[in-house]
Amino acid sequence: MAAQLLDGKALAEKIKKDLNREIEEMKAKNIVPSLTAVQVGENPASAMYVKNQKKNCEGMGIDYKLEQLGDNTTEEELIKFIEKLNNDTLVNGIILQMPLPEQIDARRVQMLIAPGKDVEAMNPANMGMLVYGNPQIAPCTAMGALELLKSSGVELKGKEVTIVGHSEIVGKPLVLLLLASLTESPTPTVCHIATKDLAFHTKRADILIVAAGKAGLIKGDMIKEGAIVIDIGINRVPALDENGNAILNDKGKPKKKTIGDVVFDEAVQKASYISPVPGGVGPLTVTMLMRNTIEACKLQNK
Ligand code: NAD
């Protein structure tokens, strides 16, 4: 039987409705949450995320400001700029768009965003709270994936969870979020590029969460019957017709489409629940950014 879809768009709308109520309550007290995005130089991927942030903020009544700094901005200049935002009481949340130009050490700058304004939770103070199991602000994609997983209604306690990918923004924070409860947690296993037998770990997972950025990495025969599959991967690949030929756009260039890391058509036959790409974790990432901004605003207006 085909798996049930975990609809990220619908869940994002539901969460946004609750957040809207919180924003209305804040506005009644003359408080308007605000998010400032800092972009250094030009990058198409980051430009798309910025557009999405703006649309979401405007739709929810969160003040959104984009600060664009030149490609040649030095690390010291960027740090000064971040410090200015840290001290600006009208700025509740700060997001530093990635990637940064090569002359800037992203980690050093992220560490200097005030923890209470760090809506991507990349500051070690927020990462540390994640280890303590009670974060007020946590990394957006990891939280989004967990929200989508929980929307299945399946109990997580004691389940075997395999996470493929151990990045700082997805895999590692996700493990910590899954282990937040002392008594109700599942049992996570984390796989990565150096894992010897990936299929061994994926096949024993009741819950499989994939964030590797490798199209086609997880095939149907690597999935346990009845597993829940959350695909976080985003890959742009050529769109092909039924004969395997490239589909061209109006300008005669090969069209591209977005797919995840899981071979969806195979996985959907094995899983009990599956998240699609696009329309799965993606819409929740930006929703969690909105939630973190509201959380940050609440922290600052205690
Ligand atoms: P990353 O490159 O920082 O990390 C990739 C991880 O996958 C690493 O831990 C690496 O060891 C592991 N990996 C790579 N190839 C592997 C293989 N063959 N077998 C096992 N493990 C392997 O990437 P990231 O920033 O964590 O992003 C991962 C994917 O998630 C990307 O496709 C990215 O676009 C996507 N993503 C989606 C969202 C969203 O909102 N949906 C947000 C962030 C990232």
Give structural notes.
The chain has 302 residues and is α/β, with parallel strands linked by helices. 38% of the residues lie in helices and 16% in strands. The protein has two domains: 15-121 and 285-300, Rossmann fold (3-Layer(aba) Sandwich); 140-281, Rossmann fold, CATH 3.40.50. It is built from ten helices and eleven strands. A six-stranded parallel β-sheet has the order 1-11-8-7-5-6, with helices on both faces. It has a three-stranded parallel β-sheet with strand order 3-2-4, with helices on both faces. The chain has a two-stranded antiparallel sheet with strand order 9-10. Strand 5 (160-164), helix 7 (171-178) and strand 6 form a beta-alpha-beta unit. The structure holds nicotinamide-adenine-dinucleotide. Nicotinamide-adenine-dinucleotide binds next to helix 10. The site of nicotinamide-adenine-dinucleotide (NAD) has 25 residues, from helix 10.
